[in-house]
Specification:
- This protein is mainly alpha-helical.
- It has a single domain, classed as Rossmann fold (3-Layer(aba) Sandwich), CATH 3.40.50.
- Helix content is 39%, strand content 7%.
Length: 191
């Protein structure tokens, strides 16, 4: 998404919201490599811990991570997009940045991933919320980005030694999308 937005806008400021979730260390390493490879602006990392909210949830403990065959609603983190957008909206207000982009894909069944939610949030927060991929499947996004360093993209719920686990819901979705896109999957899976 950053690479595509950078072709359309004069400046794109990548922001990562660190919440204390089990995949974040690996995700941040991958993101930094990806941003370096595409010559993006420096990454801003903002902290918004959620351990007090999610407590013993799989996303903070790593126990009972949704497996490859679990439905998408099993990976729902209540309020996640709301929290990501809220923190980023404050950052945008302080730096006179008029818009936020979020990487929601088609088929995302969660209440804080709808066009209405993004529109209403933007109106209340005084910032435009862009969801440029909301009508695209993961397969379509991979096809569009086939010339990008997709090996540094990240989508795993339970990384092992910094690599995609190869067994969780998101890894299965990733593997299926690469296969359907007919794009070689250069991801190094742990399992």
């Amino acid at each position: 998404m950053v690479a595509e937005l950078a072709r359309r806008y004069r400046k794109v400021f990548p922001v990562y919201i660190r919440q204390g979730l089990i995949w974040e260390a690996a995700e941040l390493r991958h993101l930094r490599r990806y941003l370096k490879a595409i010559h993006a602006e420096p990454l801003t990392v903002l902290d918004l811990p959620v351990a007090d909210l999610y407590r013993r949830h799989w996303s903070t403990t790593g126990r009972q991570t949704p497996g490859a065959k679990t439905p998408d609603n099993a990976v729902y983190l209540p309020g996640r997009n709301l929290m990501l957008l809220a923190k980023t909206a404050v950052f945008c207000a302080l730096h006179q940045i008029p818009a936020i982009a979020i990487g929601t894909l088609a088929g995302n069944p969660f209440p804080d991933a709808t066009p209405e939610f993004f529109r209403d949030f933007g109106r209340l927060a005084g910032v435009r919320v862009l969801a440029p991929f909301r009508r695209l499947t993961k397969t379509q996004v991979i096809r569009r980005g086939r010339r990008l360093p997709l090996q540094w993209s990240f989508s795993c719920l339970h990384p092992q030694r910094g690599r995609h686990c190869g067994r969780c819901n998101k890894c299965a979705e990733r593997q299926q999308a690469f296969a359907a896109a007919a794009v070689p999957d250069q991801t190094r899976y742990a399992g």
